[in-house]
Structure formats: C-alpha cells, structure tokens
Amino acid sequence: MIVRRFYSLLLAHYGVLLAVAALLLFGSPVDGIILYRTADATANTTAPSGSLANSGWQYEGIFGDYLGTPIAPHFFITAQHIGMNSDKLVYRGANYTIVKSFDDPGTDLRIFQVVQTFSLFAPLYTGSDEVGKHLVAIGRGTQRGTEVLAGGNLRGWTWGQSDKVQRWGENAVAAIKERPPGGEMLYSLFDKAGLPNESHLSNGDSGGGVFLDDGGVWKLGGINYDVDGAFYTGPNGVGGFLAALFDQRGLFDEDRQPVGGSTPKPSGFYASRISSRIDWIDSVVEPRLVNISTRATVGTGDQVSIAGFVVVGNPGQSRRVVVRGLGSSLKVGGVPVSGRLANPLIELHNASGALLAVNDNWRNGSQTTEIQRLGLAPNDDAEAVLVATLPVGQFSAVLRGANGSAGIGLIEVYDVGALGNARLLNLSGRAFVRTGDNVLIGGLIVRTLSQRLLLRAIGPDLTARSVTEALQNPVLELHDSNGALLSSNDSWQDASNSSAIAATGLAPADPRDAVILLTPGPGQFTAIVRGAGGSSGVALLEAYLLD
C-alpha cells in the first residue's frame, strides 16, 4: 500500500505521464526506515546488538527489492501488494526457490512455499496484548530526506533517496486499527517517545517484519503495510508530499484537513497484524487438527471417556499437548449441566498402556503457571489438566470420575506445539452413547485450507476389539460453528461418496459404521454420534486429515 500511495501522489501532483515515467525509470519503490536521531545513511544497517540482539534481523530474507520472513521450514511471509517480486528468497546466503503462494482473503498477507528447508525461522506473536509492546521494524531503501517546516518549526522529514539498503528502527505499538482493505493493523506513532532508534517507515516499506518483545523473546508480530499521508502544505490538495512527521500541526493531513491544536500530532505507520490471522497462517504452513473434545456421560469400566491421538514426525521430534478433563464447570447457555461430573480425573497413557501422567485437580502440581499462560486454566479448581511433551507415537487420555464417581464430562486434547516440530495426525474420542443430551459430542478445531477431513463413528467394529456393550448402529452428524448441519451418515456404504471413502483405506469393516468425508476448510466443528432408533452403547469417534 505504501507503493501505491507513492504513485498516487505522483499521479495527482504531476499527472499520468510523469507517473508512468517514474514507473519505467525507477521500477518498484523499496522498503525504508527513517530514524529520528540521525540522517546518517549508514546508521542501523547491521544487526542490532545489546538489548536488541536477536530482535528479528536474523530472520529477514531478500525478496527482490523487498523483504520476506521465514515462519516455518518451507514457508515465508510478506505483503500481497508488492506482487511476485522474485522467484526466490535469498536468506542467510542461500537461495530458496518459490513453488507456490497463498493469499489471505482477509488481509494483505501473502505466504510463499519454497522447495528448500529453512533451518531457522521466526516465532510468531500469538497474543492479543500488542498495544504498548516494544517493537523493531525492518525494511529496505530510503534515506531520511529534507526537513519539513511549518511556521518556521521543524515537523519531520520527507522521504529521501531510495538506496535499497536494509535498516532497522524501534518504536512501540500505539493501537490496533483497521486500515481498509487490509484488515487489523498494528499502528505505531513517530512521536519522539525517547527510544534511542525511534523510527518511521517510508517509500514502499512493504513486506518487512515488525518484531515484538515477548518477555525477552522477539517474535514476528506484523508485516509492514502502510503509512499515514500524503500531507499537504495548503488546502484542496496543494503542495502534496510524503514524509515522516513527529508533528503535523501547521500542515494539512491525508484527509486534506488543517491540523491544529495545542499538542503535537505525529504521523504513524501500519503493519498487518499476525496474531489475528494465526488460524489462516497455520492452515497454510502446518495443516492439522488443533483440538478434539468429547462430551459424554462418564461411567466406570468400559464406560469411561477416552481420547486418542497420534504424534507423527521425524525420529527425535516431539510435540507439546494439553489434556483437560472437565465436569464441575460445564455449562450450556450459562446454566450448569445437570448431572455433571463433580471431580474429574485424567490419565495419559502410551501405546503399550503404560501410565505417563495423571492429574486430579489442575492447581496441584508444577504446571499451574504454564496452564494459565496458555489460556487453558479451568474456572473450577476441581477440574483436571496436564501438559506433556510427547515423542512420536500413539497415546490415549482417559477421563474418569475420582473415587469411582460418574457424570457428564468433557475430555479435550490441544496441540500447543511450536511450528516445525512433530504434529498430531489424527484424533479420536471414545465414550458411552446414551439418548437425548447424553449422546457423544465431539468438538473439532481444523486448520487447513484444502485437505479433506474424514470422520468415523465406530460401533460394531469395537466388539471385535473386546469392548462390551458396543453401539451397534451409530449415526454421525457434522455441524459448523453456527450449528448448521453440514453432513450426516448412518451406514458408510450408503454415502454418496462411498467409493472415495473406500479409496482412502479408512473404510470400516462393518457397513453399519458411519463415515463422513468432506473438505471443510479451517474452522470449528461439532460432530455428534448417536444410536439409530435411540439405541445405546460404546462408540468411537475418529477424525483424520487426509492429503
């Protein structure tokens, strides 16, 4: 958008011919950082040091005239509006060949996929508390230009010569703003706040990273998008110019209105907000099932609730997961669930059945702080939560009532691991299905753009696995986040896409089992398993993402 703003001003001020001439002569403008403290073109052209060491410079790669930031082993992120600026990213001295691009429909973000593997990539800022955070912005290009005066007083500097040199500067997030059509933005002010390297963006400053200090770890929080301006020296668009201004008073703002008042009004810059688009980013760079939850009546013996999952990856890799067992805090529409499990207990087992971890009350133990930091702390201390880093393999989490108690409970498995490690491949939940509100209800969080989701409701097959009281005729439904029915199935061979189901290799052996196969896109979904004709029994709900 800064690129377009630059040419829009040329067009308005000098006419079409000059704008076209500028395009031919200069090509696309490039990124730039303007510093308050100095006009020295050599300042801040090497990696920051001291308290700003490792603040993002190490993650920036050259994408033609612009910058791109690796965020996963085969993906980097930049801005849509800079276009296809190159067929490669040059990063840490090596070339990474682009094979595919993904545009976020809601913002200006664009992700490119590359053939080679990034050995180092930026962590993403996922919190919603960016306002007030210290930031480092990185860009390429313009030097600080000439002084801007109003009433004889210095107000800032114009954009200077574009030299395509990578620079960095400091600032802070002043607000979260909408900047149409680009969605939510991190907004920063050139307000002389006292930072040693107070900075502003300039000519075409697009695609570079904005990094936020998250407790001493610098994470990618935004991608450079736009700036305030143009500004004017007179009414009706007279004397238009682009600049970094620490005070607009005595001038006319981008809406061509006079700027006055008793306090300085600085200009600012915008970066596409990463945290608001995490779901979309994940759906591109690491398609996966993020969460599965199973709500059902928890009994004893085979009538406990079980969540199964598989961690896949390379040897030596691992994944961080959270398992929650809820009962006492369960509510529907703000009303406590009748017959809820008063004191849930959860266990984590490996494929051989060995007990890896157990929790009764989530505040008991050493993981309380991490559970709270992840935003997964229950409202009731009687609920059970555990966090574990698991190697590649198969695992199951069991929800039962403490001291043999029973009631309606919810077991949840969350994938909270960092990008680039092992991942959860498929998730499942097993419970005793009754009637009415006591059916098996499975919640799913899916993050993928194009992969297919296969759901299985298994009942008859469980008998062959020595499960007593297996549900003999399961019915499966899938609903979206608004409750709308997306698909349903009773017997998988009766499905309109039964041949596609069979081709996956995941078709159940018994035709009475139910299967749904579709491409849902990213979002939250609810699967419901009930017994045909009001029947009851133990059922297994399974979710698979297919390539």
What do these coordinates show?
- The chain has about 550 residues and is mainly β.
- The protein is about 10% helix and about 45% strand.
- The chain is built from six helices and 36 strands.
- The protein has an eight-stranded antiparallel beta sheet with strand order 10-11-18-14-13-8-9-17, with no helix packed on it. The protein has an eight-stranded antiparallel beta sheet with strand order 26-21-28-19-30-35-32-33. It has an eight-stranded antiparallel beta sheet with strand order 25-24-27-20-29-36-31-34.
- Strand 15 and strand 16 (about 240) form a beta hairpin.
- Helix 1 crosses helix 2.
- The longest helix is centred in the N-terminal third of the chain and has 13 residues, at about 1-15.
- The chain is elongated, with a radius of gyration of 28 Å.
- The protein starts with a helix and ends with a strand.
Task: Summarize the model shown.
The chain has 547 residues and is mainly beta. The protein contains six helices and 36 strands.
SSE layout:
Blueprint: H1 2-14, H2 16-26, E1 33-35, E2 61-63, E3 66-72, E4 75-79, E5 88-91, E6 94-103, E7 109-114, E8 134-150, E9 153-172, E10 175-178, E11 184-189, E12 199-201, E13 209-214, E14 217-227, E15 231-232, E16 240-241, E17 243-245, E18 268-273, H3 278-285, E19 288-298, E20 305-312, E21 318-326, E22 331-332, E23 335-336, E24 344-350, E25 355-359, H4 368-373, E26 384-391, E27 393-401, E28 407-415, E29 423-433, E30 440-447, E31 452-458, H5 460-463, E32 474-479, E33 485-489, H6 498-503, E34 514-518, E35 523-531, E36 537-546
Antiparallel strand pairs: 1-12, 2-3, 3-4, 4-7, 5-6, 6-7, 8-9, 8-13, 9-17, 10-11, 11-18, 13-14, 14-18, 15-16, 19-28, 19-30, 20-27, 20-29, 21-26, 21-28, 22-23, 24-25, 24-27, 29-36, 30-35, 31-34, 31-36, 32-33, 32-35
